[in-house]
Amino acid sequence: MDSVYFNAQHSPIGAFASFTLGYPGARGGLGLELRQPANQSVFIGLESHEKGVFDALPFFKEAEDEARRYDVEAPEDHQPKADAIIRPFAREAVGRKLTLASDTWTAGDLTFRIFSPVRTVPDPGFAEAEQVKQAICPAVLVEMEVDNTAGTAARRAFFGYQGNDPYSAMRRLDDRTEGDIRGVGQGRITAIASDDASLESAMAFSIEQVVAPKIPENRVFGLGGVGGLVGTVEAGERRTFRFAVCFYRGGIVTSGEPTAYYYTRYFSRIEQVAAYAMANFDTYRQWAVEADAMLEQSRLSDDQKFMLAHAVHSYYGSTQFLQWVGEERDGRPYWVVNEGEYRMMNTFDLTADQLFFEMKMNPWAVRNELDTFIDRYSYRDQVRFPGDDTLHPGGISFTHDQGLANHISRAGYSTYELFGLSGCFSHMTHEQLVNFVLCAAVYIHGNEDEGWLRINRQVIADCLESLVNRDHPEPAKRNGIMGLDSSRTMGGAEITTYDSLDESLGQARNNLYMAVKTWAAYVALERLMHMLGADNLADLAGSQAVRAADTLLRAMTPEGFIPGVMFEGNDSKIIPAIEGLVFPHLTGCPGAVKPDGRFGKMLDALKRHIDTVLRKGTCLFDDDGWKLSSTSNNSWLSKIYLSQHVYRHVLGLPWDERGRAADAAHVRWLLEPERSAYWAWSDQMISGQAWGSKYYPRGVTAILWLDE
Amino acid sequence: MDSVYFNAQHSPIGAFASFTLGYPGARGGLGLELRQPANQSVFIGLESHEKGVFDALPFFKEAEDEARRYDVEAPEDHQPKADAIIRPFAREAVGRKLTLASDTWTAGDLTFRIFSPVRTVPDPGFAEAEQVKQAICPAVLVEMEVDNTAGTAARRAFFGYQGNDPYSAMRRLDDRTEGDIRGVGQGRITAIASDDASLESAMAFSIEQVVAPKIPENRVFGLGGVGGLVGTVEAGERRTFRFAVCFYRGGIVTSGEPTAYYYTRYFSRIEQVAAYAMANFDTYRQWAVEADAMLEQSRLSDDQKFMLAHAVHSYYGSTQFLQWVGEERDGRPYWVVNEGEYRMMNTFDLTADQLFFEMKMNPWAVRNELDTFIDRYSYRDQVRFPGDDTLHPGGISFTHDQGLANHISRAGYSTYELFGLSGCFSHMTHEQLVNFVLCAAVYIHGNEDEGWLRINRQVIADCLESLVNRDHPEPAKRNGIMGLDSSRTMGGAEITTYDSLDESLGQARNNLYMAVKTWAAYVALERLMHMLGADNLADLAGSQAVRAADTLLRAMTPEGFIPGVMFEGNDSKIIPAIEGLVFPHLTGCPGAVKPDGRFGKMLDALKRHIDTVLRKGTCLFDDDGWKLSSTSNNSWLSKIYLSQHVYRHVLGLPWDERGRAADAAHVRWLLEPERSAYWAWSDQMISGQAWGSKYYPRGVTAILWLDE
User: Are B287 and B144 in contact (CB under 8 A)?
Assistant: First the structure.
């Protein structure tokens, strides 16, 4: 890795929170419900061998003189003083290793390690409360190790921050605390705490005054915007201090509909979170070590391990585990994944990609997402051909999302979708219908939950009818793919999840990416209908799958590729043609992607397609990175990861030097220092730099690599 | 007035909230619990006679293209469109009048008027719930009048804003509302709403799209960060639209100790606030008209009226009416005034100045403040002479404040006071002791509450003992003023409320300002002790008052002034020498300020003092503004207002041309366009510009002017 200086998120599960660290300056910190890093100074440092001179990791801004706000004219000697000089470690003296569940910084005699939870959340409908509590306690843990074995004097070490919540003050936790907890926090929402009685908490205008106040009693300074914990390690000793970085938001947190964080049933204030996290430190640490070992022992390359780990860190930063409040749903769980910097809630086209990770970690969360889409975010429409006002029967589909930044959208409508458009912000009716079918099928198969299938048999049958209606109103003219746009577009055109690319991927109708996913949905529906004993519907689904495959074959060009938008004069070459092939394995239909199966020809065609397009100037950038569309410089890492998996695992193509060069390029994209490195894991890369979908949860598609 | 472009606060009572408006650009808005204006764009405008071209008050920033965040590469035609051009009114075309309870903007055919509550909050311990609810409903009201009588076409008008809460999204209220309420808001905390069914609420990336979307259905755009309400006035009509600007914070809002807003017992979400405010619009409007008439009909000059009105607006913006949560105090009221930009809670030296206003509006709030100081923020200390470590008995005193920015400080300690200092952030033990005595005496006399006096007889007797102990340990050597510093200063020195001035006002010991206030406290204690039948203690208090008066006389210089710090070689001349003279009238001891009474000589001396110092180059700036200390350019308007009142009302000195020139200068200070005008009412003026204590509640000392 070129640089250790990139932000990574360290997040409790479901707290929509992140302790973000790694980009120099005041560019990380303790963020709660934010669309970006908190941009706070974080202070982590150790006294050098020169008394009073401290070296710190470079994650802070030099303090302005905050006292001046109060004392606008006074002489300098009226201000609180410190006996410390804090200087940043030399950039090159700092080492780092980011792994799946931890992040370790080393500099001089200091080791600073963050443990994040990467673990299953038990189904809250069945698990013991204590197990759920332990899984979702809204804290991440920190170990700060100081090696003073070669030292000749005691040395002090510190860990603190300067909060920037606009509404509430920094404060010491010690004043009215829980058990032996000490620490500093801001308002009721963030805190750094410990149960180590040898640590002193302090507040001041500057970190220098926190670390070494001239008058120790002034550690209590209530106006101080900088807070921290300070420990001392005697000469000749090695010592590890432990901390919990805690988050908390009590009460009702959403507008539109009232919900609260699920953890509020276990914790009524952040001090309790801190006490519980510290009491369970050993367990959490052990879990992190085990999670790390799992990935380390896998056959992934170092680049792959890094990307998967980084993506998982960012995924958890967007998770928000809520419970409904009031009326008939009171207390029922509501699993939300926010959409990174955009903070849309449960964006369905992200759900369909995060699915693979969630199925491994907590399949009940997938079921919960689907139930919410069924209960509150499904709708019925009619459809029409482009340029023709005649309406034909449509059917059920699902909204793009369920809300935005703690606002739960009204029933039946997303926050994103607008009317009368044909590009970004138009409706994604067909795509979300396909996403529902595929998520449902993966869930039913993966969690062996036929009960849920039976409960929702009508919804799933309606999905099939709706899909077919969007193909062609006359059965004889159907070709297995989308031919009509939703009446909800009000004369516009539907789009796909690739909303910010050109029409090679953005237009839904006749879209190659959409077509293969639609095929996969029909394949899955065929099986589901058989399971339900609805053989006629199964046959319908199967015949539609065959039609879709035939259509793809028909669209193949002599040059050996299928155009991004078929039959419309477009000749963009796109990688996500193969994306939909991921599903048959996961929906219990592996036969559909057997080379000699009934879709063998389609598979050959797609193999030929990917071989044709995956070359420089077409779907490879000059740096060997993958370019999703030959006609756009905007390439999305989550989707690259997914197609890479299909390329190797489904199509059986080899991962040679060129593949490894692509991985290396993608790592470089993420670490690009000017933009990408600040935004932790990001998705939309324009020529190797993060420009959109930043701070994003979607990269966990890389979890599929572990199945290869 | 030179300019109409200055921010004023418009605040519900006790909601720690402000709809701030008046400074050009995105420099006002709907602020909740902030230390400054919200810095949001506020959109207020009317269609011109040219269709689609709107004129707006200049309180917004040109929108960046927010759509680009989502669609980083797409062509422009993929974005939602509008049929509107919004341009600011010419600066000189805008008129304004700020009064006590309203603020009226006029421009072209548009009149925009904000009504703020200036009314009594009934004692929640005795009043009917409905009365309290009506007084503290967290909303201010707006009327937007459009005169289209000369118009030949229908014209649209709008009122909206772009929120900037970091945690939650803008949203339409219409989706899940209360009654007929429509509107826009951010999260659960701010909203602009109406019950006028002819208004349309809308959200979009820009105000143009809100006002005139190409496709009206797109008004629902959930991602839009700009929200507003739009109405239409037909040709030939004149029409008034009504709005409520609402604030709400549910749940527990403070750390340290849990409290919630008192209004949460009446309203469980902001939609209910909006519905109630609109239903009571006529009542609220009438109350505002009556409050305005009261001040308009007073004998104050226009400059005085303006300063008092402006100060009252800012006072309410800092008020925060809470209730304790849990344990034995559950549900009990907790009245807090935050300290403007500093947000310290119930800073006692501000309480002592806001006292005069609160006694007129709701004396129970003063009692509540005092009770909290007694119960939670009193402490006992010892005292010592400067430069001498020997400790002598001290006694009771009170902390500087009760917390900071929603953090309630630990019992017995303020957030402000530090140890070992002799300037800003040192202890104010003596001053707060005096403040307690004076506030208590004013409350007991003003509210005729002898019951409270009897309940607290021991506390008040302890105050007398503590005051005397701070004079001299040996009775024979007492001189009536402060001679010893608190042990809490740990070797430092006590300061006064004038913490950011030089020692002429900042040092507490031997301070002239402090001495006169101490004298007033003894005078008040003498009466209180008589009321309690403790004649010995009354005599002690009376003799101390006489000693203090004698000490002042002894300090008089041949030049005709008393030095700011007496007997220490200081020769600063200070105006606040006379400040303490305000109290005898208000504590039921008017005889103490009778020219021929027992303190006649002291009064003569102070009259001579003020006459000596109140001249240019000493305690007058070149612009005729008052300069509190001859040795500092930092002058505080709240204290000027207070001393002006004493000057005229207690000392009987005439308010001539020079006085009116001072008032005019002080108005200019407040309107100074670069700094002051942004910060609404501010206190600390350095050479006529607001530098500290900005956005401040303390200016309500001007209420005393109405007593003259």
Answer: no
